[in-house]
Amino acid sequence: MNSTIFRTENRPVAPVERFRQPADIIEALLQSIQGGESHARPTLELTPESPFLPFLEIGYALRACLEKPACHDYLLQRLRPHLSVMVGTLPASIQPLGMLPKLAPLPGFRKLEQISDDELHHWLIQEGGLIYGEMQRFELENYFDAVRPHLAPGGIMVDLGSGLGKVVMTAALTLSFSRCIGVELMNYRHRLAQERLVRLLTLTRQGLDALPTPLKPDTPLRLPSGQMVNGRHLLELGARLVFIENDMFKVDVRGASLVFVYSTCFGPLMDALSNKLARELPEGALVTTTTYPIQHPGFQLLETHAPGTLSWTSVMIYRRVGPPMTEPASTARYLHHPDADAWEARARAEIGGG
Which residues form the DOT1 domain (predicted)? Predict the structure, then answer.
């Protein structure tokens, strides 16, 4: 357990009105990327070409049961065996503000009775991974303070499930990474991250142009983390930031020195994810997770931060140890097993409450 005293709330900040020094530019950039947790979530696209078509089909079948009181018993009966991979009481996607389109399902979509338990199980795993969350600014400041002592200067940072890109861009501004890469499956989140990046680089250019003295590549520059770099850190910011639209399991992370995973909704994926990281990461690389620990012999736990200290949830820091792992370490290490009767009572209360 780490005894460091961390920030517990965002400090008051005044908008940057003039760019007198490079530090003003960095502060303005950090302010510009806040607030993503409140973004609007569009529904998934309902077309025959949608990559989420299998997800939509099962989601519609579940929602049809949710909307019919006569089907509630059957819905709970089907969900009950899969509580270990569910996030929350009822799947968020099938509720009124979920990501299922309000349009009628496409012709040929099956009813829940025609969908197997195996298909439903995998749907619930995927559904959990679509839930979005972000750390606030003070939590990210705490996070980078915690990982910095374990990192050598430079290196590559990768965020698996990067959302709107806040962690990736904060990393590029706060520490001396040579490259920061975000990997995001959801197209709309990737698109918003790219739009944020364009605004970030535009503001960077405006700030550099407004400095009383032009920033030179070799000018010493102190980062918010305390690390010393030079002017290239800002001058080459665009070359150090990359966002990739892809499944995190399809992106190779062999060159990474730090992998960040906001894994609070990834419980059912943690076995596969830890096996992937053990197989690909070089010895010495860092991995951090939230809520769910890594339970794999290829990783040494360096620090654990309890909920309410570094962040609202627990944060774990690991180092990759030992030779490359070619085989999975084991299976089913992360699944939780809530009390089924208590879950059903909560579910009936939620359904009854509308």
Answer: 131-198
